[in-house]
Amino acid sequence: MHNTAFGELGVEARYQLFPMPQEEIAGFLKGVKEEGSPIFGLNVTVPHKEAVLPFLDSVDPFAEKVGAVNTIVVTPKRKLVGYNTDGPGFLTHLTEIGVDPVGKRVAIVGAGGAARAIVSVLCLLRPAPESILIYDIDQDKARQLLRDLSLRMETAHVKVVSTMDDLNVELADLLVNATPVGMRPGDPLPVDPALFHPHMTVYDLIYNPAETKLLKAAREKGAHAVNGLKMLFYQGVLAFQHWAETQVPEPVKARMWEELEKACYKK
Questions:
Q1: What is the pLDDT of residues 10-51, one digit of tens each?
Q2: What value, to the nearest 5°, has the Cα angle with vertex 176 and ends 21 and 64?
Q3: What's residue 108's pLDDT?
């Protein structure tokens, strides 16, 4: 996706992977800040989205509220500025598919990094959703997520529930699967499909396979079922725009989407 954009815009740059353990992050980012470094931007993926924070020179207000960064801009003076495009990417896709979470009932399965960004961006909407219920098999992780976000934003309408039944999926307008359950063929359904109804949107952040068992079951019940590839796309476009400090032209976005979809689904 990014290399396609570089090519379309005539920019001599390439997007490449830098796999590393957490103990190497400080040294790596120190090297990025040096004058001779060719790096002008980075993405940060799990499990490093929170670990990079102490090594940044500044953080965008939204990323500060989320408490996690997935995009870093290296300024001309070699300063590191952190952003989070996951939440805005999710919200952009909801807008595209005509789903307005304002005043709605939201149920989220999972309390990891993706859930953190999604809960944050929903909480900052004005007006906000009517309710946001979160369930994770790791109760401590879910409660810690809510405690952390409560220090940064208004979360009175957010509640961590202790069982899947308490998630009240049958009453939800928007259900989000923010867990990896569904990526493997043998994975069980994370939610009882009997709870789905035609007036809800089921959003599975998993995009490979394109249709998980969860999405298939949701469609069979008449629900609006959507995977997370467009969220990945929009967060990537926003990251690219932070690096380039300009809007990506629509024809370039179209090419980025084409290449992303092709890469994921081997078209």
A1: 999 999 999 999 999 999 999 999 999 999 999 999 889 999
A2: 50
A3: 98
Residue 130 neighbours by CB distance under 10 Å: 13
Helices of type H across the chain: 2-9, 25-32, 61-66, 86-96, 113-123, 139-150, 213-220, 229-244, 250-265
Give the global pTM: 0.94
Q: How far apart are alpha carbons 166 and 139 in whole angstroms?
A: 13
Residues 6 or more apart from 144 whose CB is under 8 A from it? none
The reply to whether 87-227 shares the fold of 2-84+230-265 is yes
Q: Does residue 159 carry a catalytic annotation?
A: no
136-152 pLDDT tens trace? 999 999 999 999 999 99
Domain boundaries, the chain: 2-84+230-265, 87-227
**Span 208-234, pLDDT tens digits:** 999 999 999 999 999 999 999 999 999
CA distances from 81 to 22, 43, 59, 258 (A): 19, 12, 5, 29
CATH number at 87-227: 3.40.50.720
Nearest to 181 by CA among 191, 170, 171: 191
The CATH architecture of the domain made up of 2-84+230-265 is 3-Layer(aba) Sandwich (3.40)
C-alpha span between 92 and 252 (Å, rounded):
17
- 128 Cα distance to chain centroid: 19
pLDDT score at 15: 97
Listed in sequence order, the residues at least 6 apart from 182 whose beta carbon sits closer than 8 Å to its beta carbon are: 189, 190, 204, 206, 209, 212, 213, 214
Catalytic choice (30, 49, 230, 266): 49
Q: Using DSSP, state whether 174 is helix, strand or coil.
A: strand
Q: How confident is the model at residue 267 (pLDDT cuts 50, 70, 90)?
A: low
